[in-house]
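Justification of resources, computational component.

The compute hours requested in this renewal are based largely on the per-chain cost of generating structure records like the one below. Each record pairs the submitted sequence with a full structure-token output. That output is archived, and it is also reused by downstream analysis tasks.
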Amino acid sequence: MDTFLIRVEAETHDHFFMKKKRIVIKIGTNLITTEDCSLDTKFLSNLVEQIATLVKKGFSITIVTSGAVACGRKIIPLKKETKFIPYRQVLASVGQSVLMHHYLSLFGKYGITVAQVLLTNFDFQQRETFLNTKNILHRLLSLCVIPIVNENDVTSYEGIELGDNDNLASRLASMIDADTLIILSDVDGFFTDNPKKNPLAKLIPRVEKITQEIEKMAQTVSSKTSRGGMLSKLKSAEYAVTAGIDSYIVPGKKKDVLIEILEKERHVGTFFPAQTSRKDSRKKWMQAQIVKNAFLEIDEGAIHALCHRGASLLPSGIRKVAGKFKRGDVIEIRAIDGDLIGFGLVNYDSKNVSKIQGKRTEEIEQLLGTFFDPEVIHRDNLLIVKN
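The structure output for this chain reads:
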């Protein structure tokens, strides 16, 4: 399963949340740690200060952070570096708590709450887990909590690992329907060659399309602490722009770099413009995922709420459940006369929706004996096609 999040395109009554620009910021190990694997607290403090300013300006921020393994190495030092995977997982387990302690302390100075979110590839591949993860992230952002996301190195192994946090950042940006992905790097942007090895390498300020020629320019920079390099960042940007998300590779230690890009709208680093609109990319994905012969028929009140108020689909508005589907499936939403209203990721399976159709939200727990969500389909998981 791909990771394009679906949301209502109509104006929502919850205008404050929906109008906030959603930004994913990826921070690499080489930026957040020093040569001896200590946290670069000066860098981190400055970055948190910038993010706090942006939050006050109305931006909705999600952070993808590296650095847990490096922090673990500082606490459990190795005489000789090893590629033994279980040891790396031990380092991540120890280092993650150190990393989160610093984020918690720094954001706390500005009265901002943060939440730890650890993910693996499994969370993007499995429908129900994908839906659960997306819904939790949505709720965190709606409460003005900043998710601090990292790969779950402790449980990750071949087959479910994401590989590096550049990959995680782009897929997460798609999942939460971000407007912009900013990859903070230890170089000034994307160059014609590796600027650390070739002083004649030139910065490319804008990449309209990622071609094979562009990929050849990307040189993977080896590092003792970081798994990703410039090629990884380029692939991350490519994934994001295909999902309709503007992307940047920028110098993380440039003074007020986030303020310059997001608030002052000045050019920094390398910009990768979105290759399609988010609505078009979501529509294409949803149409490919629709469960055949499965749909919900809704009444006029629910149609008005979805199309004109950007509301979620509640059980009270459902008049018919057709076909079989599972939680997390994409199904059609139709009017009673069969007119197509839109598509959506459903929070309950067909058996349970049949039990709660036409009922009030507060009756769900009593009728089902469990309670996932108050909505059958949340507005962030809807695509309305009816004018």
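The radius of gyration is 22 Å. The first strand starts at residue 22 and ends at 27.
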